[in-house]
């Protein structure tokens, strides 16, 4: 499996992608190793639930060009009873940073029946504190995500240095031109970002 991750990353580089994000959140395989509820192994990967992810990070890093940043998505806490908390997430992120991760994309949950709605408080900006916690705890750049589709609210996350980047999911499903509309709302569109045929619909529509 470690080799499969390495090969996947190698193909991504070969295909011309700008970066690679390893998925360690939301119940995907690396998360399953972290979670005390799913990792009931009795071998070295059970004794050290971070070992598998660490081996994956090292393997992927091996095939990336030296200047290419490596991102990793993590669930910074679980909501299910008996799940892990953010202090544990800080520990696995510390190991992954040492192994080669340059930036963490900080989500939460997704571990089981409660699902990825984020538990009881999935309101606006509900995961930003977790991103900030990993950022300040490890002095590492982070991406914040989760109900940040309000332009001004997303901007505050960046301007107050809670995260280096924000990711927008449902907001982009609802409005594929979210980034252009955010630029417009927050202080002017860079025309270079608007596809030519769409100019009259976006920055010249008034
Ligand atoms: C339709 C849909 C599909 C999603 N699929 C995935 C997925 O496959 N893997 C994943 O990690 N997150 C997935 N997510 C979660 C998003 O990546 C994101 O973390 C989450 O929606 C919170 O951000 P938002 O409030 O901006 O949508 C999905 C979300 C939606 C709405």
Q: What is the fold's blueprint, element by element?
A:
Layout: H1 2-14, E1 20-24, H2 29-34, H3 44-47, H4 51-63, E2 70-75, H5 86-99, E3 103-107, H6 128-138, E4 142-145, H7 151-159, E5 165-167, H8 170-174, H9 178-187
Parallel strand pairs: 1-2, 2-3, 3-4, 4-5
Helix pairs in contact: 1-4, 5-6
The structure holds flavin mononucleotide.
Residues 25-26, 107, 116, 145-149, 168-171 line the site of flavin mononucleotide.
Describe the structure.
By secondary structure, the protein is α/β, with parallel strands linked by helices. It folds into two domains: 164 residues, Alpha-Beta Barrel (TIM Barrel); 32 residues, no CATH class. The chain has nine helices and five strands. It has a five-stranded parallel β-sheet. Strand 2, helix 5 and strand 3 form a beta-alpha-beta unit. Helix 1 packs parallel to helix 4 and helix 5 packs across helix 6. It is globular and about 65 Å long. The protein starts with a helix and ends in a 19-residue tail after the last helix. The mean pLDDT is 92. The structure holds flavin mononucleotide. Flavin mononucleotide (FMN) binds next to helix 8.
């Amino acid at each position: 499996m470690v080799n499969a991750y390495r090969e996947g990353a190698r193909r991504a580089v070969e295909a011309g992608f700008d970066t690679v994000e390893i998925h360690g959140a939301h119940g995907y395989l690396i998360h399953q190793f972290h979670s005390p509820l799913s990792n009931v192994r009795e071998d070295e990967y059970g004794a050290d639930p971070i070992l598998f992810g660490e081996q994956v990070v090292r393997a992927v890093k091996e095939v990336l060009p030296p200047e290419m940043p490596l991102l990793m998505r993590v669930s910074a806490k679980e909501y299910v009873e008996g799940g892990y908390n953010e202090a544990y997430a800080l520990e696995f992120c510390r190991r992954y940073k040492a192994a080669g991760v340059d930036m963490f994309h900080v989500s939460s949950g997704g571990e089981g029946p409660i699902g990825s709605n984020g538990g009881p408080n999935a309101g606006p900006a509900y995961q930003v504190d977790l991103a900030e916690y990993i950022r300040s705890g490890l002095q590492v750049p982070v991406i914040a995500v989760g109900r940040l589709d309000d332009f001004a609210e997303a901007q505050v996350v960046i301007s107050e240095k809670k995260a280096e980047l924000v990711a927008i999911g449902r907001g982009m499903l609802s409005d594929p031109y979210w980034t252009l509309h955010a630029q417009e709302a927050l202080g002017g569109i860079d025309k270079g970002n608007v596809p030519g045929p769409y100019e009259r619909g976006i920055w010249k529509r008034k």
